[in-house]
Amino acid sequence: MSDDKRDGSKPEEQDWAAAKAFYDSLGATSKKPKLPKPQTAITIAVSSRTLFDMNEEKDIYENEGVEQYVKYQEEHENTPLAPGAAFPFVKAVMNVNVRLRELYPESEELFDVVLMTNNHAQVGVRLINSINHYDLGIERFCMTGGKSPIGYLKAYLTNLYLSQDSVKVREAIEEGIAAATMFTPKKEVVLSDIQLRVAFDGDAVLFSDESEIIVKEKGLDSFFEHEKEFENKPLAQGPLKCFLEALGKIQRKFYEKNERLDCPVRTYLVTARSAASSGARALKTLRSWGLEIDEALFLAGAPKGPLLEKIRPHIFFDDQMFHIEGAQQLGTIAAHVPYGVGQRHHVKKDAK
């Protein structure tokens, strides 16, 4: 009888256990914190151009070619790259890990950030130096040398993929992976350094686009009638439901230590739905999934930007570009989720 049949574990789990045991034995006396276990971690894959501001380098690549691009990166490898759109989010995620390790010193159930980039390996030194400069603690890299990294996302057990390349984000969504195209806000705002704040739109983000289809095809009155009729029927899940689920898993670890009021993760539902006419179904859907949301904000079609300006999330997910653009103008770090019927009406360009 094979070993995996005797102990009930799968071969890939045995391989991980053996590799982990060897790695731990090498670092038994190391002061660096243990890496999260991929099977239990919340893995966030982020592109290098999203984590760092690489617009100047991108111009060199597009105008002078890959060889000049690599040469420039090597010549400047000791110059840290400036923070990009995803930088505050990643920094906040790492701060949550610090708090988790205080409560659960041996836990491997943490956020794990992977740098997922189609950069060439020769650029790796500058990326490593930049990550160490900002003390981001990113240990896992995937550098694909000009090829799309999307095929590696599932192998890295990715829970969320963030990029500024809308084509790659769409490919990830089609593969069933939560993903979004990130945008740099038009102005800088001061964000919380003690709490990770994540804001979600509802339809076509946390939920499916079934309600949006009704609005587009039959109008608001039919939508309100439909939501009332099916108030007790949960909406189907959208592409970011699994990420909210992962955040809830982390939050519960703090709740179990009586840290609910001091939890370093806070979630927001920011939806164009109106509370009286269609809000109940959204809340009942979350309840049916066993998920909590810290704040639910129903705007009844009003602009989201001014309210997001007050929340100051580290990231805001929405499927509609006009909400993304409005949030950007007022300093919100916004991420477009290219999913659902709304994409037929808005042609999306790469983030700048």
UniProtKB/TrEMBL annotation:
Cellular component, GO annotation: cytosol
GO MF entries: 5'-nucleotidase activity; magnesium ion binding; nucleotide binding
InterPro entries named among the record's database cross-references: 5-nucleotidase (IPR010394)
Example GO biological process: nucleotide metabolic process
One Pfam family hit: 5-nucleotidase
Domain of life from the UniProt record: Eukaryota
Descriptive protein name: 5'-nucleotidase, cytosolic IB a
Source organism phylogeny: Eukaryota, Metazoa, Chordata, Craniata, Vertebrata
Gene: NT5C1B
